[in-house]
């Protein structure tokens, strides 16, 4: 399943696909636990396909007109242009605090 193909689908279709993939993922995990799953790579494939669908759904929710990563680059450039860099403040030297020395404890046995 390619991300390019998923972007062409509608949101409702992607939500249905998400439900079916999550069910497939559960069934594969159950079959793997009971040693009935022949192709263990199906676990990884189902997990990644589900992640692709969820990613596309989030992208469509934030910006329905965005097709790919190209829409994000101008946003980053605009943020960089809007926020001027601040000059680094010189680090203040901290005064070294005097070390406290512990007084030796004398035991009553050694005094006697």
Characterize the structure shown:
- Helix content is 58%, strand content 0%.
- The protein is mainly α.
- The protein has a domain at 3-71: Helix Hairpins.
- α2 (11-33) packs antiparallel against α3.
- The longest helix is centred in the N-terminal third of the chain and has 23 residues, at 11-33.
Specify Rg, calculated over alpha carbons: 30 Å
Strand elements, count:
0
Low-pLDDT stretches are none
The succession of helices and strands, N to C, reads HHHHH
Helix count from the secondary structure assignment: 5
The CATH architecture of the domain at 3-71 comes to Orthogonal Bundle
- Provide mean pLDDT, rounded: 79
Helix content: 55-70%
The CATH topology of the domain at 3-71, please?
Helix Hairpins
**What kind of sheet is the major sheet?**
none
Return the CATH class of the domain at 3-71.
Mainly Alpha
Structural class: mainly alpha
Q: What is the element layout, followed by pairings?
A:
Blueprint: H1 3-7, H2 11-33, H3 41-62, H4 72-82, H5 108-111
Keywords:
single chain, mainly alpha, Helix Hairpins, 5 helices, 58% helix, elongated
């Amino acid at each position: 399943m390619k991300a390019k193909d998923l972007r062409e689908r509608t949101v409702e279709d992607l939500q249905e696909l998400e439900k079916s993939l999550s069910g497939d993922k559960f069934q594969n995990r159950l079959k793997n636990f009971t040693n009935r799953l022949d192709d263990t790579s199906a676990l990884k494939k189902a997990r990644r396909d589900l992640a692709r669908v969820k990613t596309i759904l989030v992208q469509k929710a934030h910006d329905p007109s965005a097709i790919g990563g190209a829409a994000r680059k101008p946003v980053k450039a605009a943020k960089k242009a809007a926020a001027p860099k601040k000059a680094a403040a010189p680090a203040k030297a901290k005064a070294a605090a005097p070390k406290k020395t512990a007084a030796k404890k004398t035991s009553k046995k050694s005094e006697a």
